[in-house]
Amino acid sequence: MRRSRITFVLAGAATAALVVSGCGGNGGNGGSSGGGTTGKAPAYNAGITGVVNPSDHKGGTVVYQLSSTPDSMDPGNTYYAFMWNFSRVYARALTTYQPAPGKAGLKLVPDLAAGLGKPSDNGRTWTYHIRPGLKFSDGTPITTKDVKYAIERSNYAPEVMSNGPTYFNAYLVDNTPKYQGPYKDKSGDLKSIETPDDTTIVFHLKQPFADFDYLVSSPQTAPVPKAKDTGSDYVKNVISSGSYKFQSYQDGKGATLVRNPQWSASSDPIRRQLPDKITVQFNIAQTTVDQNLIAGNATLDIAGAGIAAQSQAATLNNATQKGHLDDAQSGALAYMAISSAVKPFDNVHCRKAVEYAVDKVSAQTATGGDIHGDIATTILPPTVSGHVKYDDLYKTPGYKGVNSPEGLAAAKNELGRCGHPGGFSTNLSARSDRPNEIAIAQAVQASLKKVGINVGIQQYPSGKYFTDSAGAPAFVHSHGLGLMMTAWAADWPDGYGFLQQIIDGRAIKASGNSNLSELNDPAINKMLDAAIGNTDAAARTKAWGDIDKAALVQAPLVPLLYRKDPLYRPDQATNVFVTEAYGMYDYLNVGMK
């Protein structure tokens, strides 16, 4: 999923079976849910199980800071977890996650829709009814045609919207002739989505899809008025359906949001309008973001990636400061992709040499230790349904890789089998604004050097990492990026939501690509199709573990850490808690004292 974080528990059989309960007039952001802390000294990890500083106070400005730029603030063109989380402030999807700490935050609830979807035709057809009387921030009515158009532009126009997954394109019944998207085919119609009236939308799928309610929680279902869409420039003037609207947006600098006067609490049980303004500031160095949080000059780090290793001493070793931290289990896998399309990694034995050589303990230590995650040996993290702790395929004593005699011998053996007994040279990409990721890259570089693999580290900004560099296969090939640092988490709570976009060869895209390894094994693709179409929940869950292992045999990536992220919450921030749906703080109703 998104190139950041999301945490899930085991999923039920079908989302249609979920029973929805009201979240309360306070917006369900935790005034009473899961307990709360107020009037007390801050406590370590208090925001994981309860709400810190629950408050109905209105006023003030919430200040978010970010070490780079978002991939986009257009809800239809983003794939970072923090943007899927934050976009809910101004963009209402058909469904979303209940804003609450703990397991309650994993409950799927209606948002723009009045209820969860109604499946028919054995799960091949899903029908939703949106709440009546909704309006955009410009005062025009919101209809299901706006939802349909949002899906058309986000899934059928890769030349304009390159970020984000294309599940709708993959699973909606194909048009004949094939639909070319709203920009190339202005008079076309995606017939697999019907809008019989202004409050009804019907999806027709190629095969059963029990978890479709999760799929429509994506911001790609947030309505977009066709008359106001300006393609790639829409990000400069997004029309809001949420509780806040854009007052200004400056590319590369930031954005300011203010209360949306067209929003009504009576039609939205999960949001509140607390701060007067919300500002998001881009391109602030991560260590500066950390310092501003500690000094009380920023409300939260919107990226949700945790404080940098350099900032840990000032927090973990100080009892008062440590009380401001929540070490959140993010549900993400930090890993290094190995490109099967960049020589010599087109040879599986060269890939396996890297698997054996990497010292995972040194990678963990580089980030500050286990506060940033546990050593990983599988693709699926333990928090995702279908995870199986099978025997490590590339096991070395103590996970020390080349720094153990066994790891060194295994890596050299694989190098010999791939025709490079003395090693070779390649490049490794990492995000320039993420110091922890760079630190891991440097640790990997040191490991591989000991077996004769010389690695040059190439740094690129997060905001364009997937559109322009690591996620653009042509760039990867021409720049010899044999190795690429990244992190990944599930789009929804099962193995398919985690695996499909990163190991299915049909998911490879020219830009905004998430299958960085460019793995395209027909057998694995077929296994994914068979599993998602299986209506037996137990069999489906078992299949995810089988697919995980089958993919890792191909050595497409090196699992490094099951991510944890130490998040910092200043005293002045209210209604702060970790949402397990996104593995970071919930941004829906954050306020100020």
Helicity, as a percent range: 10-25%
For the largest sheet, list the strands in their spatial order: 15-19-14-18-16-17
Structural class: alpha+beta
Largest sheet: 6 strands, mixed
Radius of gyration: 23 Å
- How many H/I helices? 17
Write down the overall mean pLDDT: 91
Global outline? globular
Quote the distance from N terminus to C terminus.
Answer: 34 Å
Task: Tell me the total number of β-strands.
Answer: 23
Uncertain segments are: 3-38
Strand content: 15-25%
How is the secondary structure organized here?
Layout: E1 36-37, H1 46-49, E2 51-52, E3 61-65, H2 81-86, E4 95-97, E5 108-110, E6 118-120, E7 125-129, H3 144-155, H4 167-171, E8 193-197, E9 200-204, H5 212-215, E10 244-250, E11 254-259, E12 277-281, H6 286-295, E13 300-301, H7 313-316, H8 319-322, E14 325-338, H9 348-357, H10 360-366, E15 373-375, H11 405-417, E16 424-431, H12 435-449, E17 453-460, H13 465-469, H14 473-478, E18 481-488, H15 495-503, H16 522-532, H17 537-553, E19 557-568, E20 573-574, E21 578-579, E22 584-585, E23 591-592
Parallel strand pairs: 1-2, 3-12, 3-13, 16-17, 16-18
Antiparallel strand pairs: 4-5, 6-7, 7-9, 8-9, 10-11, 11-12, 14-18, 14-19, 15-19, 20-23, 21-22
Helix pairs in contact: 9-11, 10-12, 15-17, 16-17
